[in-house]
Design brief:
Elements lengths: L1 H12 L1 E2 L2 E2 L3 E7 L7 E7 L2 E2 L3 E2 L1 E7 L3 E7 L5 E2 L5 E2 L1 E9 L4 H8 L6 H22 L11 H15 L5 E8 L6 H51 L2 H16 L31
Antiparallel strand pairs: 1-6, 2-5, 3-4, 3-7, 8-11, 9-10, 11-12
């Protein structure tokens, strides 16, 4: 009886109920006293195994993780034109829930953070190498304009690396590019000079436009004067004078004096030599 009670007590003591929280898949193993641990089942959280004998669980997060690699200081990347470029590269990835068993048995390590261990052992160095390779294809000042292209190229290479593995690659993002201070100041000065040049160009174009307007106005005045000069013949002026006299005939109050005048009071039009009229 005592032996039976001892066996029952030992069995009860060896019973566990491992749980898995939401966002995790549990890799459950059984650990018999006299046998090595073996895979028991996968469980998707939130859940638990229920009371079972000698069960343990390793919970693997299946939500997206962001791993950031720094390329600063001594690890800055040398661009195609030998300019040192500092930046960050971000990798968004996760573990495929259906392949947690493969992940634990092939890539995972025991410890508090198996994902970090797997990333460091399998992805980190290739990710850094691919990023460095793609950035070095461009001159320093051209990198900012090709960040998306670089990120896509790195992502394609990581996807090939992780094909047929439990790793799911979501995206690669290249962070803000930091240039050396001297280069940044040079770029700022160049931008300021460009803005001044653009403003000067606008002012020159405005001045040219105003000059063209003045020239057009002067040309119009000149043409008008030519037209008037052509029409102002002596006969035309005399005709206008007669018309004016006719208009004044019906006016109740008027005094008109025309000097000099010719026959019938018509103004004389032409060039006269003073002092010769009395001799005629």
């Amino acid at each position: 009886m005592r032996r039976l009670l001892a066996v029952l007590a030992l069995g009860i003591i060896g019973c566990t109920n491992p749980s898995t929280p939401a966002g995790y898949v549990g890799y459950v193993t059984k650990h018999p006293y006299t046998m090595p641990a073996r895979f028991y089942e996968l469980q998707t959280g939130p859940t638990s195994t229920g009371l079972g004998w000698m069960l343990e669980v390793t919970n693997i997060s299946v939500t997206p993780n962001t791993s950031t690699e720094q390329f600063v200081g001594p690890t800055a990347v040398l661009a195609k034109d030998n300019l040192h470029i500092e930046f960050q590269a971000h990798l968004l990835w996760k573990i495929d829930p259906e392949n947690v068993k493969v992940f634990v048995e092939k890539y995972g390590e025991t410890g508090e953070n198996p994902l970090a261990s797997a990333y460091n052992n399998f992805i980190k160095e290739p990710f850094r190498t691919y990023t460095r390779d793609e950035v070095q294809k461009y001159d320093g000042l051209d990198i900012k304009d090709n960040i998306d292209v670089i990120g896509s190229a790195v992502q394609d290479r990581i996807l090939k690396l992780t094909k047929d593995t439990p790793f799911t690659i979501i995206s690669v993002v290249i962070g803000n590019i930091q240039y050396p201070e001297t280069v940044a100041q040079s770029v700022a000065n160049k931008l300021a000079a460009t803005q001044v040049l653009e403003q000067t160009t606008i002012e020159i174009q405005t001045a040219k436009a105003k000059a063209q307007i003045r020239e057009a106005e002067a040309e119009g005045v000149a043409k008008a004067m030519d037209t008037i000069n052509q029409k102002l013949t002596p006969l035309y002026v005399q005709y206008e004078a007669i018309q004016a006299q006719q208009k004044m005939v019906n006016s109740p109050n008027h005094t008109e004096v025309y000097i000099p005048v010719g026959p019938m009071g018509v103004p004389i039009v032409g060039t006269m030599k003073m002092g010769q009229e009395g001799k005629q």
